[in-house]
Design a protein that fits this description.
single chain; 148 residues; mainly beta; 12 strands; binds FE2/S2 (inorganic) cluster
Amino acid sequence: MKIAPNVPRLAPIPDGLVAIGAADASFEPALDLDELPAGAMRRVTFGDLDILLAHTSSGIAAVDDRCPHMSAPLSIGYLEDCIVGCPLHDGRFDLATGNVERMPTTGGLLPDGTYVPVWTPEGNTRVRRMRYYPVRIRDGRIEVAIPS
Ligand code: FES
């Protein structure tokens, strides 16, 4: 009996969140598969584009390695299942859906002196949408579609 090779899944890209120009971009080699075990994150760089590769519980995902809050590198944060945590203000983002799981811990004073506590939800802290890059696996390597 033939045993199927243990190839990791690829995380589906949430609707509408493909990075501009990535849908029909060419694939570039990024990492060997064994460099990204389950639960790991790595930054890969193509020119001036930094990509976060994350091996989540939904599969391997590639997004900008910039927090959607204030652009901190998510690759030095942490990964729990599908949730990536930002090292700067502890925002948490779901890589399976692209949604915010916890708003960043910013707070402080508004220009008029009004105090805004941390953990204040939408309305006082702006968060951009995550942007995803298509991923594929070829010959034991993870490849990412990089816009030219
Ligand atoms: S920069 Fe990531 S939560 Fe603020």
